[in-house]
Amino acid sequence: MQDRRMGAEEQELADMARRVLPAGGFGNMAVETVIHRGLGGRVWDVSGNEYVDYLLGSGPMLVGHAHPEVNAAVVEQVAQGSTFFANSEPGIRLAAEIVDAVPCAEQVRFASSGTEADAYAMRLARAFRRRSKILKFEGGYHGMSDYGLMSLWPSDAANAPIAQPDSAGIPDSVRDEMLIAPFNDLAAAQALIHAHREELAGVIIEPMQRLIPPVPGFLQGLRAITAEYGIPLIFDEVVTGFRLAYGGAQEYYGVTPDICTLGKIIGGGFPLSAVAGRAEIMAHFDRTKVGAAGFMPQIGTLSGNPVAAAAGLATLRILKRPGAYERIFANGRAVWAALERSLKEAGLPALILGEPVMFDAVFTHRASITDYRGGLDMDRDLTRRFNERARANGVFKSDGKIYISLAHDGRDLADTAAAFAAAARETAEAAALT
Ligand SMILES: Cc1ncc(COP(=O)(O)O)c(C=O)c1O
Questions:
Q1: Which CATH number fits domain 8-66+323-433: 3.90.660.10, 3.90.1150.10, 1.20.1250.20, 3.40.50.2300?
Q2: Which of these is catalytic: 51, 120, 141, 403?
Q3: Centre of ligand 1 from the C-alpha of residue 244, in Å
């Protein structure tokens, strides 16, 4: 296959980006590609190179880019005005849809990003429990707040359960408010929760942590001990919500938390996130229910934005149709199989980790990975090189994870299989030369 070609216009934009943006980018995906447009399961860069897209905007575009029904809903709303800082019909209807779909959701409060929703969820647990410590899991991603950045990607993982800040600029005091447990080790989590039960405000977890699914019994065990001590359990469903199933990871794994956070899909490609949970806990957003001392103000200029809510509602309508999740899972299984076959045939040591709707190859000699530390010795250089070759061969993906779309069709899957085969072969050849 032909390597992507970078035209003069894209080059000029990339140069401009390097001048005006720190590190040449938005902090997200690698900066060498400037995306121009997306349609269905594909994106095109400014130079006209076409890719099958497995980044999907880092997950929101589950039904595909520029879906005509989502676009129509957005255009209709935009014609009525873009934002009001007041209740609006799309936001109210979206909240009602979330309450219907998500097991823990008795009430919903909107924000604009997953980071915000997670920060509010942790504060909500603190307001409810009138205690301050939060337990999170090593390697778990809960956005970019001071708390979320504790032990997110420690290279020296020896500190846990003491938290380690993974960003400059975080006050030392934050470390003392967090406890870190190993994912999928129920006995260790139980011991920590038991020992700190009087100080803990909440436990926050990605029910599927990055690419790592929970081992059987882990989430159930966490649910049981947090319920026993009355400690709110928060599922960060920013990624998994409406993706693993219509009711999210809590439906898929059959464990209901007290609070969850949602993002990505519920905004249909626009900035929208939510905290949802038991009414007794959500009452802390309502001064009339909890009084001034228990009240947790939550104000956001764009919270519940009607354009984003209209896009989210249209997205959920599509996902609710019979066969939608079966199709997404079937697409995922096909891509998983193609990736596995390509890596095996090229002799690259890799493990495919995840669930059929989101997964990736981890370049490792290990037979399994069940926690953050299990992935520490993965071959990052091979990861980077394989994904660079995948993009060069027409598959747009990050080093993080493959997101599957309902919009991926037979041609996308066939092109993906060919691109993975070429990328794996070229990666193996290059590795043999070095
Ligand atoms: C599990 C999880 N939580 C929170 C976030 C943060 O969401 P946002 O990027 O909208 O702030 C992400 C983003 O990828 C995520 O994957």
A1: 3.90.1150.10
A2: 141
A3: 16
- Residue 172 among the catalytic residues: no
Q: How many CB atoms lie within 10 A of CB 294?
A: 14
User: Tens digit of pLDDT for each residue in 57-77?
Assistant: 999 999 999 999 999 999 999
Residue-averaged pLDDT of the chain: 96
Q: What is the largest CA-CA distance in the chain?
A: 69
Mean pLDDT confidence for 348-352:
97
Distance CA 151, CA 145 (A): 12
Catalytic, 141? Answer yes
Is 264 considered catalytic here? yes
The reported pLDDT for the residue numbered 1 is: 47
Write down the catalytic residue from 133, 136, 258, 264: 264
Is residue 52 within 8 Å of residue 395, measured between CB atoms? yes
Tell me what the mean pLDDT of segment 350-359 comes to.
98
Per-residue pLDDT of 90-124, as tens digits, reads 999 999 999 999 999 999 999 999 999 999 999 99
Q: Which CATH class is domain 68-319?
A: alpha beta
Q: Which of 210, 215, 152 is nearest to 189 (CA)?
A: 215
Q: Is the distance from CB of 420 to CB of 339 less than 8 angstroms? A: yes
145 alpha carbon – ligand 1 mean position (Å): 11
Q: Among 259, 222, 221, 302, which Cα is nearest to 127's?
A: 259
The residues facing 259 across adjacent strands are 234, 277
Residue with CA nearest ligand 1 atom 16: 239
For residue range 378-399, list pLDDT tens digits in order: 999 999 999 999 999 999 999 9
List pLDDT tens digits, range 262-301. 999 999 999 999 999 999 999 999 999 999 999 999 999 9
Per-domain residue ranges of the chain: 8-66+323-433, 68-319
Lining ligand 1 with CB less than 6 A are 58, 113-115, 118, 141-143, 206, 236, 238-239, 263, 273
